[in-house]
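[User] I wish I could look at a protein chain and see how it folds. I have put the entry right below:
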Amino acid sequence: MALHPSPRSDDLAKKFAEANEHWNLEKLYRDIANAKQQERRRQCKQLTPTEKACLRGLLSGYSPTEIATELNREPGGLRVELCRGLYRYIETVTDMYIKTYSNVSKLLENAGYKHQQKYRDVTCNVSTIQNPKSKIQNRVDWGEAIDVSIFYGRTDELTKLQQWIEQDKCRLITLLGMGGIGKTALSVKLAQLVQEGFEFVIWQSLRNSPPPPHIF
């Protein structure tokens, strides 16, 4: 696999810049750097430009593989670096265990690092309030679904999957691929797009569930 030279520090600072709009990065950099100093003890370490870029990428909804591609890095090596470094520092800051990269943004949001969204005051008419589709909120259980409020790309895939469900009436879709390419984020975003077409939406993991013959 041919890789291009690593980006310079000033180029790295431009990567995943959209995270600046939604997150208090200055405080986050500072707190994670403090956690890094505790981890390294006598070595007074700050976050490197690469670590900051990786953090912004994770906060923007990118998988480690996608981040590695953007940074001209080898995906496997970057994932190891994240597990040995940035993930551990974030666990120290949040006092929570990171099960997968997709948990990072939710943990940091719960820790108060995400800017609060400001909504405009709007006037709702009676027809909007009585719209049956608005009742979907009372019939949805997202469980431990990851936060995809910041989601970029995958337009073609989402369009095709949405067509399979809404037009072709497909009842079962399986997303396959290597770990870290964003299958979970894609599936959550798809579920949000099609939720109004269903009476109930329930997001649950079947990892420890009994096999289908025992259920049915």
